């Protein structure tokens, strides 16, 4: 018999064992979006307890058309990031420590104030942002071939695995975020290009979306936390020996190498 706690424990076991398996919605069609978000909160609670980690921010998933097309799901979603997922700039990632990691470029906010819906707009969201940085997110679905329905991936904490944030810190008024260009390269070869507008028209829209969605569930985005606003481009597989780099127009660049 499935229930919310079993979903969270099953996905936790898959991550620990580095083993992907089938969709939970196939076995338990009653896993709707509301139950999936409760399972996500439980999964993160387990992670915090078992690994002595702290939740340090929020991530959005499926905020760009490139990502939505790839996954065949057209709704953005929210999830949580912890301090244990953060890699230092230049720190390599052992590919075998995960299942099938993929990397995507993101625009990352650090919050100057708490933010919670309802009624958050792009403008009010951006007023709560302290700084903007370049980021790379590593996603590692606990489902075979990254094949899932929306409740599956929500319960799986939006495939969250790791992230790295660039060194350059820019004030939110210092740049036009919608126009901010990004090139994703693998070993120096360009594989995708995008601008900030690819994330919901403006990354501030993604932030407002997260604040409103989290507010409905009684959560807030806390002052000092990070917000990963979602992959600007499709994600690329990380392979041993390869280096993935996101180069932005005004946010500098950030790289991650696989070992
Ligand atoms: O960060 C993300 O966009 C993850 C959300 C979708 C899950 C995935 O791409 O594995
Ligand atoms: Mg992402």
TrEMBL record:
<protein>
    <submittedName>
        <fullName>2-hydroxyhexa-2,4-dienoate hydratase</fullName>
        <ecNumber>4.2.1.132</ecNumber>
    </submittedName>
</protein>
<dbReference type="InterPro" id="IPR036663">
    <property type="entry name" value="Fumarylacetoacetase_C_sf"/>
</dbReference>
<dbReference type="GO" id="GO:0008684">
    <property type="term" value="F:2-oxopent-4-enoate hydratase activity"/>
</dbReference>
<dbReference type="GO" id="GO:0034856">
    <property type="term" value="F:2-hydroxyhexa-2,4-dienoate hydratase activity"/>
</dbReference>
<dbReference type="InterPro" id="IPR050772">
    <property type="entry name" value="Hydratase-Decarb/MhpD_sf"/>
</dbReference>
<feature type="domain" description="Fumarylacetoacetase-like C-terminal">
    <location>
        <begin position="87"/>
        <end position="254"/>
    </location>
</feature>
<dbReference type="GO" id="GO:0005737">
    <property type="term" value="C:cytoplasm"/>
</dbReference>
<keyword id="KW-0456">Lyase</keyword>
<dbReference type="Pfam" id="PF01557">
    <property type="entry name" value="FAA_hydrolase"/>
</dbReference>
<dbReference type="InterPro" id="IPR011234">
    <property type="entry name" value="Fumarylacetoacetase-like_C"/>
</dbReference>
